[in-house]
Design brief:
The chain is an alpha+beta fold. 16% of the residues lie in helices and 32% in strands. It is built from two helices and six strands, in the order βαββββαβ. The strands form two sheets. It has a four-stranded antiparallel sheet, covered by helices on one side. A hairpin with a 2-residue loop joins strand 3 and strand 4. Helix 1 packs antiparallel against helix 2. The radius of gyration is 21 Å and the shape is elongated. The model has no long low-confidence stretch (mean pLDDT 85).
Length: 136
């Protein structure tokens, strides 16, 4: 049985993937107060980081939520609204990025958030097949 090539079938030709050395990279995840998002984004832009992913989140830490009064009834708010920011950077930029996030997200009150840093094994751009820091 003969198979037609991708181009003969009207599909674009997929680029070949090359195995290249990947610079060490880290993923930074920050959970912050929603009203601090613009300040954090601006701070990351100032240190030269452009691409971030932002997710709406709900959760609680040590503050354990709070009680609110609504139309005369008191109720407990267990999960507080937060924003989760994710970005992948080269190892050399991790400290700058963390300090930018920390400085911009800081209010000095409980619930300012957390920053997590983890190792990234590989990054691949789907459209081009680029790998490593070129894909980020």
């Amino acid at each position: 049985m003969k198979y037609a090539s991708a181009q003969a079938q009207g599909r674009p030709k997929r680029p070949r993937l090359r195995v290249e050395y990947c610079k060490p990279m880290k993923k930074i995840e920050a959970i912050i107060k929603p009203f601090k998002l613009d300040e954090v984004k601006d701070a990351l832009n100032q240190v030269g980081l452009k691409g971030i992913t932002v997710l709406e989140a709900k959760g609680f830490g040590r503050q354990k939520g709070h009680t609110e009064l609504y139309r005369g009834a008191e109720y407990v708010v267990d999960f507080l609204p937060k924003v989760k920011i994710e970005l992948v950077v080269e190892d050399e930029l991790v400290e700058k990025a963390v300090e930018a996030i920390r400085g911009a997200a800081y209010t000095g009150r409980i619930g300012d958030g957390k920053i997590f840093v983890s190792q990234i094994e590989e990054a691949i751009r789907i459209r081009t097949g680029e790998r490593g820091d070129a894909a980020v």
